[in-house]
Amino acid sequence: MKTLVISDLHLGVQRNGGTTIASAAALREYGHSQHRKLLRLAPQLGCGRIVVNGDLTDVYDIPLIQALQIYEDTDKFLSAYPQLELVWGMGNHDLSKDSSRLGSVAFIGALLQMKHANFKVLKTSASIGADTYLIPHVPNQDLFELELARIPEGTRFVLLHCNYDNKFACAADHSLDLSREQAKALKARGFKMIFGHEHQGRESLGGSVIIVGNQFPTSIADCLPHGDAQKDGMKRALVIDHVAGTTEYVQTWVPNDDVGGYAVIDWRDLREAGFGGPGFIRVEGAALTSEAADVIRAISAFRQRSAAFVITNAVKVEQVEGLADISTSIEDIRSVNVLDMLKEHLDPAQRAAVDKLYETQAETT
Protein backbone atom coordinates (compact mmCIF):
# COMPACT_ATOMS: atom_id res chain seq x y z
CA MET A 1 0.00 0.00 0.00
CA LYS A 2 1.28 3.46 -0.95
CA THR A 3 -0.07 6.94 -0.18
CA LEU A 4 0.50 10.06 -2.26
CA VAL A 5 0.68 13.17 -0.06
CA ILE A 6 0.02 16.60 -1.60
CA SER A 7 -0.91 19.94 -0.02
CA ASP A 8 -1.34 23.68 -0.42
CA LEU A 9 -2.86 23.66 -3.90
CA HIS A 10 -4.74 26.91 -3.19
CA LEU A 11 -7.32 26.27 -5.89
CA GLY A 12 -9.42 29.28 -6.84
CA VAL A 13 -6.49 31.56 -6.02
CA GLN A 14 -7.13 35.30 -6.27
CA ARG A 15 -3.97 37.23 -7.21
CA ASN A 16 -4.19 40.99 -7.71
CA GLY A 17 -0.57 42.10 -7.77
CA GLY A 18 1.28 41.40 -11.01
CA THR A 19 -1.76 40.15 -12.91
CA THR A 20 -4.44 41.28 -15.34
CA ILE A 21 -8.04 40.06 -15.24
CA ALA A 22 -7.23 37.58 -18.00
CA SER A 23 -3.97 36.31 -16.49
CA ALA A 24 -5.56 35.89 -13.04
CA ALA A 25 -8.27 33.73 -14.62
CA ALA A 26 -5.60 31.74 -16.47
CA LEU A 27 -3.75 31.19 -13.19
CA ARG A 28 -6.89 29.71 -11.62
CA GLU A 29 -7.38 27.37 -14.58
CA TYR A 30 -3.72 26.38 -14.34
CA GLY A 31 -4.34 25.38 -10.73
CA HIS A 32 -7.27 23.15 -11.69
CA SER A 33 -5.26 21.49 -14.47
CA GLN A 34 -2.41 20.79 -12.03
CA HIS A 35 -4.91 19.36 -9.54
CA ARG A 36 -6.17 16.93 -12.18
CA LYS A 37 -2.59 15.92 -13.03
CA LEU A 38 -1.78 15.23 -9.37
CA LEU A 39 -4.87 13.05 -8.97
CA ARG A 40 -3.89 11.00 -12.02
CA LEU A 41 -0.34 10.68 -10.69
CA ALA A 42 -1.47 8.37 -7.86
CA PRO A 43 -2.62 5.40 -9.96
CA GLN A 44 0.42 5.86 -12.21
CA LEU A 45 2.65 5.39 -9.16
CA GLY A 46 0.67 2.46 -7.83
CA CYS A 47 -0.72 4.41 -4.87
CA GLY A 48 -3.93 3.24 -3.26
CA ARG A 49 -4.56 6.48 -1.41
CA ILE A 50 -4.20 10.24 -1.88
CA VAL A 51 -4.13 12.63 1.06
CA VAL A 52 -4.51 16.37 0.59
CA ASN A 53 -2.72 17.64 3.68
CA GLY A 54 -4.59 20.96 3.95
CA ASP A 55 -5.24 24.13 1.94
CA LEU A 56 -6.96 22.60 -1.05
CA THR A 57 -8.43 26.06 -1.64
CA ASP A 58 -7.01 29.58 -1.38
CA VAL A 59 -9.82 30.91 0.83
CA TYR A 60 -12.62 29.16 2.69
CA ASP A 61 -15.35 30.68 0.49
CA ILE A 62 -14.02 30.49 -3.05
CA PRO A 63 -16.38 31.60 -5.88
CA LEU A 64 -19.02 29.00 -6.75
CA ILE A 65 -17.64 28.50 -10.25
CA GLN A 66 -14.30 27.48 -8.72
CA ALA A 67 -15.99 25.19 -6.20
CA LEU A 68 -17.98 23.54 -8.98
CA GLN A 69 -14.78 22.87 -10.94
CA ILE A 70 -13.20 21.17 -7.92
CA TYR A 71 -16.32 19.05 -7.43
CA GLU A 72 -16.49 18.00 -11.08
CA ASP A 73 -12.79 17.10 -11.29
CA THR A 74 -12.85 15.13 -8.04
CA ASP A 75 -16.16 13.41 -8.80
CA LYS A 76 -14.87 12.20 -12.19
CA PHE A 77 -11.66 10.91 -10.64
CA LEU A 78 -13.39 9.04 -7.81
CA SER A 79 -15.80 7.45 -10.28
CA ALA A 80 -12.94 6.39 -12.55
CA TYR A 81 -10.89 4.90 -9.66
CA PRO A 82 -13.35 3.47 -7.10
CA GLN A 83 -10.60 1.31 -5.57
CA LEU A 84 -8.46 4.37 -4.74
CA GLU A 85 -9.13 6.29 -1.50
CA LEU A 86 -9.04 10.10 -1.41
CA VAL A 87 -8.79 11.99 1.89
CA TRP A 88 -9.01 15.75 2.35
CA GLY A 89 -7.55 17.18 5.57
CA MET A 90 -8.64 20.71 6.38
CA GLY A 91 -6.03 23.48 6.33
CA ASN A 92 -6.20 27.01 7.71
CA HIS A 93 -7.15 28.43 4.29
CA ASP A 94 -10.01 25.92 4.03
CA LEU A 95 -11.64 27.13 7.24
CA SER A 96 -13.36 30.34 8.28
CA LYS A 97 -12.24 32.06 11.47
CA ASP A 98 -15.97 32.08 12.29
CA SER A 99 -16.79 28.45 13.07
CA SER A 100 -20.46 29.02 12.22
CA ARG A 101 -19.61 29.53 8.53
CA LEU A 102 -19.43 26.48 6.29
CA GLY A 103 -16.49 26.66 3.89
CA SER A 104 -16.30 25.48 0.30
CA VAL A 105 -14.09 22.47 1.07
CA ALA A 106 -16.39 21.22 3.82
CA PHE A 107 -19.45 21.69 1.58
CA ILE A 108 -17.94 20.01 -1.49
CA GLY A 109 -16.57 17.28 0.75
CA ALA A 110 -20.00 16.58 2.25
CA LEU A 111 -21.47 16.16 -1.25
CA LEU A 112 -18.67 13.84 -2.33
CA GLN A 113 -18.95 11.72 0.82
CA MET A 114 -22.64 11.12 0.12
CA LYS A 115 -21.81 9.83 -3.37
CA HIS A 116 -18.44 8.08 -3.02
CA ALA A 117 -17.47 5.45 -0.45
CA ASN A 118 -13.81 5.96 -1.36
CA PHE A 119 -13.76 9.61 -0.23
CA LYS A 120 -13.64 11.32 3.17
CA VAL A 121 -13.02 14.86 4.41
CA LEU A 122 -11.43 15.15 7.86
CA LYS A 123 -12.26 18.15 10.07
CA THR A 124 -10.93 16.41 13.19
CA SER A 125 -7.88 14.25 13.85
CA ALA A 126 -8.19 10.63 12.78
CA SER A 127 -6.23 7.56 11.78
CA ILE A 128 -5.86 6.84 8.09
CA GLY A 129 -5.11 3.17 7.77
CA ALA A 130 -3.12 1.32 10.41
CA ASP A 131 0.00 3.48 10.66
CA THR A 132 -0.94 7.04 9.64
CA TYR A 133 -2.56 9.77 11.72
CA LEU A 134 -3.77 13.10 10.34
CA ILE A 135 -4.16 16.26 12.43
CA PRO A 136 -6.01 18.93 10.42
CA HIS A 137 -5.88 22.62 11.24
CA VAL A 138 -7.41 23.63 14.58
CA PRO A 139 -8.30 27.17 15.75
CA ASN A 140 -5.41 27.77 18.17
CA GLN A 141 -2.10 26.50 19.53
CA ASP A 142 -3.55 25.10 22.78
CA LEU A 143 -5.99 22.86 20.91
CA PHE A 144 -3.21 21.82 18.55
CA GLU A 145 -1.04 20.67 21.43
CA LEU A 146 -3.95 18.66 22.82
CA GLU A 147 -4.21 16.91 19.46
CA LEU A 148 -0.49 16.13 19.53
CA ALA A 149 -0.92 14.39 22.88
CA ARG A 150 -3.64 12.15 21.40
CA ILE A 151 -1.55 10.57 18.66
CA PRO A 152 -2.07 6.83 19.17
CA GLU A 153 0.78 4.43 19.73
CA GLY A 154 1.57 2.32 16.71
CA THR A 155 1.48 5.35 14.44
CA ARG A 156 4.47 5.71 12.12
CA PHE A 157 3.48 8.71 9.98
CA VAL A 158 1.89 11.87 11.38
CA LEU A 159 0.42 14.34 8.90
CA LEU A 160 0.26 17.93 10.17
CA HIS A 161 -0.81 21.27 8.73
CA CYS A 162 1.31 23.83 10.57
CA ASN A 163 4.62 25.68 10.67
CA TYR A 164 7.76 23.98 11.89
CA ASP A 165 10.09 25.56 14.46
CA ASN A 166 8.65 29.06 14.04
CA LYS A 167 8.13 30.57 17.49
CA PHE A 168 6.29 33.56 16.03
CA ALA A 169 3.66 31.47 14.25
CA CYS A 170 1.77 30.33 17.33
CA ALA A 171 1.27 33.96 18.36
CA ALA A 172 -0.33 34.78 15.02
CA ASP A 173 -4.03 34.53 14.40
CA HIS A 174 -5.11 31.20 12.88
CA SER A 175 -1.55 29.86 12.71
CA LEU A 176 0.07 26.89 14.43
CA ASP A 177 3.61 25.73 15.12
CA LEU A 178 5.36 22.50 15.99
CA SER A 179 8.55 23.41 17.84
CA ARG A 180 11.84 21.59 17.39
CA GLU A 181 11.57 20.28 20.95
CA GLN A 182 8.08 18.88 20.28
CA ALA A 183 9.33 17.30 17.07
CA LYS A 184 12.19 15.63 18.92
CA ALA A 185 9.72 14.18 21.41
CA LEU A 186 7.55 12.82 18.59
CA LYS A 187 10.61 11.41 16.86
CA ALA A 188 11.53 9.62 20.10
CA ARG A 189 8.12 7.93 19.96
CA GLY A 190 8.99 6.59 16.52
CA PHE A 191 6.92 9.04 14.45
CA LYS A 192 7.87 10.55 11.12
CA MET A 193 6.22 13.98 10.71
CA ILE A 194 4.95 15.12 7.31
CA PHE A 195 3.98 18.77 7.05
CA GLY A 196 1.61 20.79 4.92
CA HIS A 197 1.25 24.61 5.18
CA GLU A 198 4.78 25.78 4.34
CA HIS A 199 5.25 26.17 0.59
CA GLN A 200 9.00 25.54 0.41
CA GLY A 201 10.19 22.00 0.99
CA ARG A 202 12.88 21.07 3.49
CA GLU A 203 13.79 18.39 6.02
CA SER A 204 15.01 18.32 9.61
CA LEU A 205 15.97 15.91 12.39
CA GLY A 206 17.57 13.45 10.03
CA GLY A 207 14.48 13.14 7.85
CA SER A 208 12.01 12.64 10.69
CA VAL A 209 10.58 16.07 9.81
CA ILE A 210 9.52 16.34 6.17
CA ILE A 211 8.07 19.62 4.92
CA VAL A 212 6.84 18.60 1.49
CA GLY A 213 6.04 22.10 0.18
CA ASN A 214 3.41 22.77 -2.46
CA GLN A 215 3.43 20.86 -5.73
CA PHE A 216 3.14 23.81 -8.09
CA PRO A 217 3.45 27.58 -7.63
CA THR A 218 0.65 30.10 -7.38
CA SER A 219 2.96 33.08 -6.80
CA ILE A 220 6.47 34.29 -7.58
CA ALA A 221 7.52 33.58 -3.98
CA ASP A 222 6.62 29.92 -4.51
CA CYS A 223 9.09 29.73 -7.41
CA LEU A 224 12.18 30.92 -5.56
CA PRO A 225 14.71 28.22 -4.57
CA HIS A 226 14.77 27.80 -0.81
CA GLY A 227 17.20 25.96 1.43
CA ASP A 228 19.22 22.82 0.81
CA ALA A 229 16.16 20.71 -0.01
CA GLN A 230 15.16 22.87 -2.96
CA LYS A 231 18.29 24.50 -4.33
CA ASP A 232 17.22 23.22 -7.73
CA GLY A 233 13.88 25.03 -7.44
CA MET A 234 11.93 21.84 -8.08
CA LYS A 235 8.65 21.01 -6.36
CA ARG A 236 7.67 17.56 -5.23
CA ALA A 237 4.92 15.38 -3.85
CA LEU A 238 5.64 12.65 -1.28
CA VAL A 239 4.91 8.95 -1.54
CA ILE A 240 4.64 6.86 1.63
CA ASP A 241 5.37 3.15 1.24
CA HIS A 242 3.53 1.64 4.19
CA VAL A 243 4.97 -1.85 3.71
CA ALA A 244 8.60 -0.70 3.64
CA GLY A 245 7.99 2.14 6.11
CA THR A 246 9.77 4.59 3.82
CA THR A 247 9.07 7.82 1.95
CA GLU A 248 10.26 9.16 -1.41
CA TYR A 249 9.77 12.35 -3.39
CA VAL A 250 8.13 12.58 -6.80
CA GLN A 251 8.92 15.60 -8.95
CA THR A 252 5.83 17.63 -9.88
CA TRP A 253 7.22 20.98 -11.14
CA VAL A 254 10.48 22.45 -12.40
CA PRO A 255 11.28 26.09 -13.22
CA ASN A 256 11.62 25.36 -16.92
CA ASP A 257 8.16 23.83 -17.27
CA ASP A 258 6.59 24.71 -20.62
CA VAL A 259 3.44 25.95 -18.86
CA GLY A 260 3.69 27.54 -15.43
CA GLY A 261 7.49 27.77 -15.41
CA TYR A 262 9.56 30.54 -13.84
CA ALA A 263 12.03 33.03 -15.31
CA VAL A 264 13.91 36.19 -14.35
CA ILE A 265 14.08 38.89 -17.04
CA ASP A 266 15.96 42.18 -16.97
CA TRP A 267 13.58 45.05 -17.57
CA ARG A 268 15.75 46.30 -20.42
CA ASP A 269 15.15 43.00 -22.26
CA LEU A 270 11.35 43.05 -22.03
CA ARG A 271 10.88 44.59 -25.45
CA GLU A 272 12.47 41.54 -27.10
CA ALA A 273 10.66 39.02 -24.86
CA GLY A 274 8.03 36.99 -26.69
CA PHE A 275 4.35 36.39 -26.00
CA GLY A 276 4.65 32.86 -24.69
CA GLY A 277 7.05 31.39 -22.16
CA PRO A 278 7.00 31.01 -18.37
CA GLY A 279 3.89 31.51 -16.29
CA PHE A 280 5.72 33.30 -13.50
CA ILE A 281 8.13 36.12 -14.36
CA ARG A 282 10.18 38.26 -12.00
CA VAL A 283 11.43 41.44 -13.67
CA GLU A 284 14.77 42.51 -12.23
CA GLY A 285 17.67 44.81 -13.07
CA ALA A 286 18.73 48.31 -12.08
CA ALA A 287 17.48 51.68 -13.24
CA LEU A 288 18.34 55.32 -12.75
CA THR A 289 15.80 57.56 -11.08
CA SER A 290 15.20 59.21 -14.44
CA GLU A 291 14.30 55.77 -15.86
CA ALA A 292 11.69 54.87 -13.25
CA ALA A 293 8.81 55.78 -15.55
CA ASP A 294 10.41 53.77 -18.36
CA VAL A 295 10.49 50.71 -16.09
CA ILE A 296 6.78 51.00 -15.33
CA ARG A 297 5.89 51.49 -18.99
CA ALA A 298 8.04 48.53 -20.09
CA ILE A 299 6.50 46.17 -17.52
CA SER A 300 2.98 47.38 -18.24
CA ALA A 301 3.41 46.88 -21.99
CA PHE A 302 4.92 43.44 -21.46
CA ARG A 303 2.12 42.43 -19.09
CA GLN A 304 -0.50 43.33 -21.70
CA ARG A 305 1.03 41.13 -24.41
CA SER A 306 2.48 38.31 -22.30
CA ALA A 307 0.70 35.03 -21.58
CA ALA A 308 2.38 34.82 -18.15
CA PHE A 309 0.14 34.35 -15.12
CA VAL A 310 2.07 36.66 -12.78
CA ILE A 311 4.69 39.32 -13.58
CA THR A 312 6.28 41.13 -10.65
CA ASN A 313 8.51 44.20 -10.50
CA ALA A 314 11.76 43.70 -8.57
CA VAL A 315 13.76 46.40 -10.40
CA LYS A 316 16.07 48.40 -8.14
CA VAL A 317 15.79 52.14 -8.74
CA GLU A 318 18.62 54.27 -7.40
CA GLN A 319 17.80 56.29 -4.28
CA VAL A 320 17.23 60.00 -4.80
CA GLU A 321 20.17 61.97 -3.41
CA GLY A 322 19.31 63.51 -0.07
CA LEU A 323 16.24 61.26 0.45
CA ALA A 324 17.61 59.98 3.75
CA ASP A 325 18.02 63.57 4.95
CA ILE A 326 14.38 64.29 4.15
CA SER A 327 13.13 61.63 6.56
CA THR A 328 15.40 62.99 9.27
CA SER A 329 14.07 66.50 8.66
CA ILE A 330 10.51 65.23 8.92
CA GLU A 331 11.27 63.73 12.32
CA ASP A 332 12.83 67.02 13.39
CA ILE A 333 9.65 68.88 12.36
CA ARG A 334 7.48 66.40 14.28
CA SER A 335 9.51 67.10 17.43
CA VAL A 336 8.99 70.89 17.29
CA ASN A 337 6.55 72.41 19.81
CA VAL A 338 4.82 75.10 17.75
CA LEU A 339 3.19 76.69 20.83
CA ASP A 340 6.55 77.26 22.50
CA MET A 341 7.91 78.84 19.34
CA LEU A 342 4.92 81.22 19.21
CA LYS A 343 5.28 82.25 22.85
CA GLU A 344 8.88 83.29 22.27
CA HIS A 345 7.60 86.19 20.17
CA LEU A 346 4.99 87.41 22.70
CA ASP A 347 5.32 89.81 25.60
CA PRO A 348 4.56 88.55 29.16
CA ALA A 349 0.90 89.67 29.11
CA GLN A 350 0.28 88.00 25.77
CA ARG A 351 2.00 84.80 26.91
CA ALA A 352 -0.20 84.74 30.04
CA ALA A 353 -3.32 85.15 27.91
CA VAL A 354 -2.27 82.29 25.61
CA ASP A 355 -1.49 80.03 28.59
CA LYS A 356 -4.93 80.75 30.11
CA LEU A 357 -6.65 80.05 26.80
CA TYR A 358 -4.70 76.79 26.38
CA GLU A 359 -5.57 75.67 29.94
CA THR A 360 -9.27 76.41 29.41
CA GLN A 361 -9.31 74.42 26.18
CA ALA A 362 -7.56 71.48 27.83
CA GLU A 363 -10.17 71.39 30.63
CA THR A 364 -13.04 71.19 28.16
CA THR A 365 -11.58 68.42 25.96
Q: Could you name the ranges where pLDDT drops below 50 across 5 or more consecutive residues?
A: 322-336
Strand content: 15-25%
Q: How many strands, what sense, and barrel or not for the largest sheet?
A: 6 strands, mixed
Radius of gyration, CA atoms, in whole angstroms: 27 Å
Main structural class: alpha/beta
Count of beta strands:
19
Portion in helices: 25-40%
| N- and C-termini, Cα separation | 74 Å
Reading the helices and strands in chain order gives: EHEHEHEEEHEEEHEEEHEEEEEHEEHHH
Give the spatial strand order of the biggest sheet: 4-3-2-1-13-14
The average pLDDT value, as a whole number, equals 88
Q: Specify the number of helices.
A: 10
Apparent shape: globular
